[in-house]
Amino acid sequence: MKPDPDLAAVAHVISAVRTRQPLVHCLTATVSMGIVADGLLAAGARPMMTETLAEAPTVTTVADALAVNLGTLSTDAMDGIPATVAVAVRDGRPWVLDPTAIGLAPVRTPLARQLLDSRPVVVRGNASEVLALVREGAGGRGADSVASPDAAQEAAREVVRRTGGAVAVSGAADLVLDAGRSASVARGTALLSRVTGTGCLLGALTAACCAVEADPFRAALAATTWLTVAGEVAAGRAAGPGSFRMELLDALDAVGDAAGALTGTGEDR
Amino acid sequence: MKPDPDLAAVAHVISAVRTRQPLVHCLTATVSMGIVADGLLAAGARPMMTETLAEAPTVTTVADALAVNLGTLSTDAMDGIPATVAVAVRDGRPWVLDPTAIGLAPVRTPLARQLLDSRPVVVRGNASEVLALVREGAGGRGADSVASPDAAQEAAREVVRRTGGAVAVSGAADLVLDAGRSASVARGTALLSRVTGTGCLLGALTAACCAVEADPFRAALAATTWLTVAGEVAAGRAAGPGSFRMELLDALDAVGDAAGALTGTGEDR
Amino acid sequence: MKPDPDLAAVAHVISAVRTRQPLVHCLTATVSMGIVADGLLAAGARPMMTETLAEAPTVTTVADALAVNLGTLSTDAMDGIPATVAVAVRDGRPWVLDPTAIGLAPVRTPLARQLLDSRPVVVRGNASEVLALVREGAGGRGADSVASPDAAQEAAREVVRRTGGAVAVSGAADLVLDAGRSASVARGTALLSRVTGTGCLLGALTAACCAVEADPFRAALAATTWLTVAGEVAAGRAAGPGSFRMELLDALDAVGDAAGALTGTGEDR
Q1: What would the mean pLDDT of C215-225 be, rounded to a whole number?
Q2: Which residue ranges of chain A lie beneath pLDDT 50?
Q3: Pairing of β C166-170 and β C174-177
Q4: B34 interfacial to chain C (CB closer than 8 Å)
Q5: Full-model pTM
Q6: Which superfamily, per CATH, for C5-254?
Q7: Do C34 and B29 touch (CB under 8 A)?
């Protein structure tokens, strides 16, 4: 049986991450630093986490990609993010924006919108977050989405028009799109939302894939598939959210060429 | 066999948390953010962790309860806590104070005492911490208690007189009391003190229970029972502190109506 | 069969940590706070994590040892570290320096060099970090080493001349040395580098051992052996990096007198 062409493309990106072990600089929510770092290591990439204005712009010069996540947003991160993104842009390094829990929060919401001008190669968020990037007054409740996938798809297209990159919208089915392509990944498990930071990890894993795959759409699709397939493998072995977290890290390390058919995944146009 | 009436009340609160999935805003120790967030998610609640003065008072307006823990106390948290508590008080939202490691520490100790004026519905701490809330010069050693349960009980009654709420004192047997009631929960396992942040998690879980149960005494008793029974289940499956941490999260998800008889638990008066 | 004499010395230190349960104040990378705290607890020690200038110098007075790690280096830690180290020095308390990811980073690199004047009893780092302590322009890439063990050994001897203490250099084989002794610990597993913060944990565990063993060389050798042997035990049980992290904590708790022969370990001179 011929392997699914998408699966082959995804497996190619996974393999490249493991071979090239990209160094991913993450400015991420304090609460999810642990799972983001361990998830990148499990995937074969290498994390870096300094977020201060005094050091982050300098150390980011050795990174292969940058992931910026606005969850919890410490004052160190508020200060460090714009200058660090500016260095990544100057150096032509791919960077990913994860506008976690924007909408109501008064600092991260305008910051996220302003960061679109620095053209992240991928924006990753849930439906509410993507909507809040382009609509005043929109936003979820905490880290959870309350927006419909359809409204988010329209907003995602608007983001794509501004950045020229790709957008990945998490949900029951994940949506990945850019200016000319669109794919739906109907994989994963509800347990992914029972562990803190799995969305942040997806953003960082997307940055790792962007470090080895120049096409942001393909990189985002690979990261989304990698994490959701690993989630399915982990769910089959877990007895609850605690063991699921551990199994997810093991599965990120194990998922690869034998990831299985990507049912429900494919470019729509 | 008729179920223990306490067990029925506890099971009712657990069920309500799972059904209503309260959003709990946590200003907590950096070191325990991970287990607090994962523990709340395992219990069926939803965590939110922003602590800056710039954002925490605003985002707390969408939360169902607030948990304030003074462990590690970053400068962000020092700045953000008083204003965030003020919003919770203004909006009539239940909030829980966990005065972690007060006594010697020069910022958190007066802060904890001052926060009593904002009348937390529950104060949760170990014997040394509860004692240090009302006695100059008292306090433990790091996060560990050196005070006797009896001295703590007297101090807890003084806290109750000031706040009008409930107090939960952790120890070999946990004590929960308010102005008119008192209960002892002789459950749990020594392994709970071999994992960082289980006390912080209990404070946050108490806030989750306060979001669905208007009686702070019953909410605190339910949270204490929930966590300690889950600890017993986890201890029976764990090979050491690492696997215990994972099993504890699985057990928080699983413990419920079938939690078993609450031996040693009951209202004393 | 007579037990290896080194093993007996290591087992003696492990036993002393479990009996005396030293309180170890850790100013450490935010990303690794969780594994450092849980690792110390698993080992039988007790962690303390406050890093602000406002509180850390005061609370450190009750600690038995201090561990300073420069990874991620928040502004709170930048401000708090020098004053906290000064108190430890004033009080004659052993302290350990872990110069994580120095070299390129503009704040931590001069800070680490300056902290050598406060004579840490042990400096623990990888080859690049130890080299960057004494050579301008040296340093690794993120948290990973790019220096050779031989270059690091020469640099380590220079550090020893400045501090009068011991140095532990992590690598495929770990090197521990002081002014008159040198040992190589060829234990461990590649999985230790697939989990974030295991190096930070080794620094903190070294501080715990220094609290119960006055000879820094023996303390560093014990901590290095303890962690790497636990890593081997965990690797034998793990299916991937997620389960390895859990098993490592269980093994830190279990490793002891029956740790097994320390092949490849021994004082060279």
Answers
A1: 97
A2: 1-3, 259-269
A3: antiparallel
A4: yes
A5: 0.95
A6: Ribokinase (3.40.1190.20)
A7: no
